[in-house]
Write a structure and sequence with these properties.
Layout lengths: L3 E5 L6 E5 L6 E3 L6 E4 L4 H21 L3 E5 L2 E5 L1 H10 L3 H28 L8 H12 L5 H15 L4 E4 L1 H19 L2 H7 L3 H5 L11
Antiparallel strand pairs: 1-2, 3-4, 5-6, 5-7
């Protein structure tokens, strides 16, 4: 039983043994066929590299101008934080706070949590607080809405294209790269591998072994 653990299917609650998977393999529920786990090749190292790249893209996206407008011989440009500040000054307090949290704070917090988790599990056993950070990361993730911000920018560009010349800044391309990197992170990250490396996981696993002769 050292190479298998018990897991309950999240769809039908069938308790069954999860065999040790090699990279590229996947396991499905014996009753409903739901995917229980997919072992992704070199998951932690790939996700760490993608997370570092995403952090760099996020820094660039918030440090340099994103858009510029040129009309009647005058030019103006702004950053993401500059847009938040302008909305606040114009009295759009709720919109500015939501934009700040969804486009800056939530992505930065999620990337910080992921970097901490991935660095902490490089030498197992990982400390028990890694599990807590992983739960926080899952809570924060739905609130990072960089894609929604990009969609809003594109809609605005279409509306003002006839009134002024739009100058695309480096931050715009950084945001586009950030969206791709965040999606790649989610695709390559294997949370189960993190849980298996947490310090208390193996110590408690023996409590959940099935009695001899009992099948799941």
């Amino acid at each position: 039983m050292s190479s298998a653990t018990l897991i309950a299917c999240p769809d039908c609650d069938l308790l069954q043994q999860m065999p040790a998977l090699i990279p590229g393999e996947s396991a499905q529920c014996a009753r409903c066929g739901n995917l229980l786990r997919a072992a992704r090749p070199d998951s932690l190292n790939r996700t760490l590299a993608l997370t570092v790249a995403a952090a760099v893209a996020l820094l660039i996206a918030n440090a340099v101008p994103m858009l510029g407008l040129s009309a009647a011989g005058r030019e103006a440009n702004t950053t993401v934080l500059g847009g938040v500040r302008v909305m606040w000054e114009q009295g759009q307090f709720a919109v500015s706070v939501i934009m700040l949290f969804a486009a800056v704070v939530a992505p930065a917090l999620d990337l910080a949590l992921m970097l901490t988790i991935l660095l902490a599990v490089r030498r197992p056993p990982a400390p028990h607080w890694v599990g807590t950070l992983l739960r926080y990361s899952r809570t924060i993730r739905p609130w990072r809405m960089v894609e929604v911000m990009m969609l809003g920018i594109l809609v605005s560009l279409i509306k003002i294209a006839e009134l002024a010349t739009v100058i695309t800044g480096i931050a715009m391309w950084a945001v586009a790269a950030l969206i791709v990197l965040l999606a790649a992170m989610s695709s390559s990250f294997d949370a189960e591998e993190v849980w298996l490396r947490v310090e208390w996981a193996d110590k408690q696993a023996h409590r959940f072994h099935l009695p001899q002769g009992v099948k799941p």
